[in-house]
Amino acid sequence: MDVKEIIKPENQVYGKTELLTDNVMHYCPGCTHGVVHKLMAELIDEMGLQEKAIGVAPVGCAVFAYNYIDIDWQEAAHGRAPAVATGIVRINPEKFVFTYQGDGDLASIGAAEIIHACNRGENILVVFINNGIYGMTGGQMAPTTIERMVTSTTPCGRDTELNGYPLKMTDLVAQLPGTSYVTRQSAQSAPAVRKCKRALKKGIKNVLDKKGTSFVEVVSTCNSGWKMTPVKANEWMEENMFPFYPLGDMKDSEKDKPVSNN
């Protein structure tokens, strides 16, 4: 049966941008990826960027992003999306280029690529989905797994004496001179989704204005990897991840500009 026959327009709470395809997403019910995909599709459509946008997705849960947002995409090796995006935007400076990466990808095998791309100030938007685990490969501990968080490889919870400390990537890149806008958001409620969309839009505008790297982290759930219902996963995220990963802007080159006396 055609998806259009199942999801009828009159039953939708709000309309779906045509840039979001009718392909049924492979994400688990309750996954944050689908929400952020929708936001990116809406913004690219609303800002008239379909012909200019090039997304780069590496290995991870978002590896099939090209199935869902109708723009040009480039696949990258695990962790190498910032390096691939660097090549694309330097050859095509008129394009809007963004990476879409999970925490197991960006903060682990891709840590060098993201740090150096941000330090150089490559004119790209980085969308960073942080759910605290390796969601695609079985729920193992990731660099972002918080202390005492249970994963398939830390069944008694992350022990900092044994496993080291969680890595706050967004805090790190905010210190680099090449970043123009760095923020941490979420998408577990309607108000949070609206804030997240505003942050993504600001990041896109900064890229279009060639201000350097914009970095938007979205603290997210992985209810299947966390072995929770979607509702419980949202509650657990708010109670446990938000205190360690507080939401809000960390760097905004516009707000940080000194006021001229002239």
UniProtKB/TrEMBL annotation:
GO terms for biological process: cellular respiration; small molecule metabolic process. Residues 67-218 form the Thiamine pyrophosphate enzyme TPP-binding domain. It comes from the Bacteria. One of its GO terms (molecular function) is thiamine pyrophosphate binding. Pfam families: TPP_enzyme_C. Keywords: Oxidoreductase. InterPro entries: 2-oxoacid:Fd_oxidoreductase (IPR051457), THDP-binding (IPR029061), TPP_enzyme_TPP-bd (IPR011766). PANTHER family: 2-OXOGLUTARATE OXIDOREDUCTASE SUBUNIT KORB-RELATED, SUBUNIT OF PYRUVATE:FLAVODOXIN OXIDOREDUCTASE. This is 2-oxoglutarate ferredoxin oxidoreductase subunit beta. It comes from Tangfeifania diversioriginum.
